Amino acid sequence: MNWITNSVLPKIKAWVQSEDVPDNLWVKCKSCGQMIFHREFEEANNCCATCGHHAPLSPENRFRMTFDEGKHTLVELDSISEDPLKFRDTRRYSDRLRDTRAKTGLTDAIAVAYGTIGGKPAVIAAFDFRFMGGSMGRLVGNGIVAAAKEAVARNAALITVPSSGGARMQEGVLSLMQLPRTILAVDKVRDANLPHIVLLAHPTTGGVTASFAMLGDVQLAEPGAIIGFAGRRVIEETVREKLPDDFQTAEYLQEHGMVDSVVARSEQHAFIARVLGFLMEKKPAAKVA
Amino acid sequence: MRHFLDFEKPIANLEGKVEELRHMSSDGSINIADEIGKLQTRIERELKQTYEKLGPWEKVQVARHPERPRVSAIIKQLFDDFTPLAGDRNYAEDYAVIGGMARFRGQGVMVMGTEKGSTTEERIKRNFGMARPEGYRKATRLMELAGRFGLPVLSFVDTAGAYPGRGAEERGQAEAIATSIRACLRLPTPMVSAIIGEGGSGGAIALAAGNRVVMFEHAIYSVISPEGCASILWRSGEHAQEAAEALRITSDHMKTLGVIDAIVPEPLGGAHRDQTAAISSLGTVCFEQLHSMQSMDSAALIADRSDKYLAMGDKALA
Ligand SMILES: [Zn+2]
């Protein structure tokens, strides 16, 4: 059966495919090994009832979970010329893109939607780790830019939910240029005196952390999410030191002052609604420079 | 002793011969001026042929050449009254980032850059040019200071990347880089950035999101090192040469992609063969770029940067 084969494949792949299995099948928690009914698992937004492990969640399910009554409207993202570098490793980037699109039904690693949270207008830009590890290239950059524009136009809060291995190497330096690009985008929201909440989902690493993802007015993270600029292995090889087991986890980051709160999925809607309630209660008196 | 790269072996051999001849002629027994002249011509021809068609992997080696002009040499040659500033006011002074006020052709500016160091001792002190959060926070501090007092900023980047260390992560490496990029973007004064050697990923863009970005002819600019890219995409660091090719890290590609505005030509045989000439060209190009923004006010400068970086990715290679 599908999930048996999956259990020996990399974690992420298994989690992801579990979203497609029929209701009567079981899902094995990748953290504690507990068997969970797929339907139950999905109802809990891919969280394990036994250990609380948060498995990856698609943007669509995240929108349903976070917006009031799950109601939302997707924001259409611009298309763009592909493969700007004519990149080729063991395969052509253009082939990789085509196959990933066919397999996932996604255009790229981000989706944007608007709706309300606790009655306050909000735009969510959520990464999709299934698409090339959520890596940030130009299309993902477009997603953040579009989300920020939408937020400003709608006088809405911006909620970004990164889940990414980092910059999209196949777009070379242009993926690096998405760092300033996405920072500019979220700063438009900041300049409009609208809140930007970052919710760091597993994993958020590399270039994505060194951009908009660390510049929220409020920084939230999902339990157990790995968040960091440099990878654990690279650091271990560089400093030749055994790192703590919980190094770069959401909880570790909170302890080191990088995250305001670690919020479980079951609490996220209420938590974000409360934050927006405070930050969007009054119309700001004046634009703060 | 000059440091020769692998592909410079034929040049090294010729220069060795010149040295030998000089040594022989110093005892006055033979006149070999003609011989030396011929050899010098061959060396020049060889250098020209080699450096005209450097591949990306060769450029990686040139960009990492131990005798490449360093930021401190650039400051010394192009700036007067350099007044270094130190510390991030939070935790430490990061020697991987040099910066301070100085005069550039008479004009007061803020100059900063990542410094790899020239001697073994200095390289260690400067952590081989790999900054920690304190370095980026210091850069942010300097840019904010420059902005408040109307000083243009010139930044020079030569780094393999931000330092991957436990403490760096714990003290917010990612946040420090993001904030430094933001400081570049929000600066109300003109900013010219130069990629002078290695422009390594987030650690480079942290100081390089200027209005104008220039790059030495043989410098490289990349989202990841070719070795790192090869180990992920090819699953072996041995494919670094192919990765260097695929990543399009050279100055000509950067120009086509709209990532840089100007290429600074290097002397025959690379900047490491004639640092003074190389730095002099860099000064000329930086001055031109700075001068081109003379009539722009704060709002125009910020808008210029915003337009530039929001459009990043619109251009592609043909
Ligand atoms: Zn579990």
Task: Throw out a few tags for this protein.
heterodimer, A: 289 residues, alpha/beta, 2-enoyl-CoA Hydratase, Chain A, domain 1, 2 domains, seven-stranded mixed beta sheet, two-stranded antiparallel sheet, 11 helices, 11 strands, 36% helix, disordered N terminus, B: 318 residues, eight-stranded mixed beta sheet, 8 strands, 47% helix, 16% strand, binds zinc ion
Structure characterization notes:
The complex is a heterodimer of chains A (289) and B (318). With 289 residues, chain A is an alpha/beta fold. Chain A folds into two domains: 1-55, no CATH class; 56-279, 2-enoyl-CoA Hydratase, Chain A, domain 1, CATH 3.90.226. Chain A has helices at 2-8, 11-18, 38-43, 59-66, 93-104, 138-153, 172-176, 178-191, 232-239, 250-255, 265-279; strands spanning 26-28, 35-37, 72-74, 110-117, 120-127, 157-161, 196-200, 204-205, 218-221, 227-228, 261-262. Chain A has a seven-stranded mixed β-sheet, with helices on both faces. A two-stranded antiparallel sheet of chain A has the order 1-2. In chain A, a hairpin with a 6-residue loop joins strand 1 and strand 2 (35-37). In chain A, helix 1 packs antiparallel against helix 2 (11-18) and helix 6 runs parallel beside helix 8. Chain A starts with a helix and ends in a 10-residue tail after the last helix. Residues 1-14 of chain A have low confidence and may be disordered. Chain B is of the alpha/beta class. Chain B folds into two domains: 6-53; 60-310, 2-enoyl-CoA Hydratase, Chain A, domain 1, CATH 3.90.226. Chain B is 47% helix and 16% strand. Chain B has helices at 9-25, 33-52, 56-63, 71-78, 120-125, 133-148, 166-170, 173-186, 201-205, 226-234, 240-246, 251-256, 275-291, 298-310; strands at residues 79-84, 97-104, 107-114, 153-159, 191-200, 212-216, 220-222, 262-264. In chain B, strands 1, 2, 3, 4, 5, 6, 7 and 8 form an eight-stranded mixed β-sheet that branches. Chain B starts with 8 loop residues before the first helix and ends in an 8-residue tail after the last helix. Bound molecules: zinc ion.
